[in-house]
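Input record (Table S2, row 236):
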Amino acid sequence: MKYILDVHCHTVSSGHAYSTLTENINYAASVGMKLIATTDHAPAMRGAPSNLHFFNFAAVPPVINGVEHLSGVELNILDYDGRLDLKSGEIKRVKVVIASLHPICIEPADIVSNTSALVCAMENPLVKIIGHPGDPRYPIDIKKVVDTAVRTNTVLEVNNASLDPNSTRKGGESIIIDIIKECKKRSYPIILGSDAHYHTAIGDFSRAEKLLKEADFPDELVLNTSVEFFKSTLDI
Ligand SMILES: [Zn+2]
Ligand SMILES: [Zn+2]
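Output record (zinc ion complex):
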């Protein structure tokens, strides 16, 4: 298997996902994954768990069924200054920190405002990954977002779920390809995320992979190819 890790996985704790952490990890083991992270939605998402959920990951063994498990969160960006829905001290309790724009938590706005929201979130050193930056509902200045990602050592996600024709984020292919191309120009890594809300989606990057091929993006720059590469790039 070429891609051996998936660090964007939801569980029943998110409130609108349907598998448990154990189902996720056992499925990951069955398809040959080496590492997954549990990144449930942070508290501002309707139905998401309280901040306590993110304090207690020590209860979960670091390796289950041969798969390394990392704690994580998908934070909500709440405003165009990049405000997030957990405090810094709370965010520090988990390893994989994704920050994303979701319409339930922040109204889509013009390019300048949407770009500012992402840029400000990336300026926060605790944010490691921007989830689904190619959402067509939030038009962005791609060059500025990629420049900021490089400068702040934040990685942009190519989100497989967004490319599902039933996704609320559908229609973003050309934006996502442009993001991939800008990263390629700068020889800057990207990460693939399944954004699984059911365990059988874990490790499925088939739609994202098509776009990588289209942009002729080198595999050596895909963080999902190596646990060491992923950890060293994001300082995890
Ligand atoms: Zn979700
Ligand atoms: Zn999301």
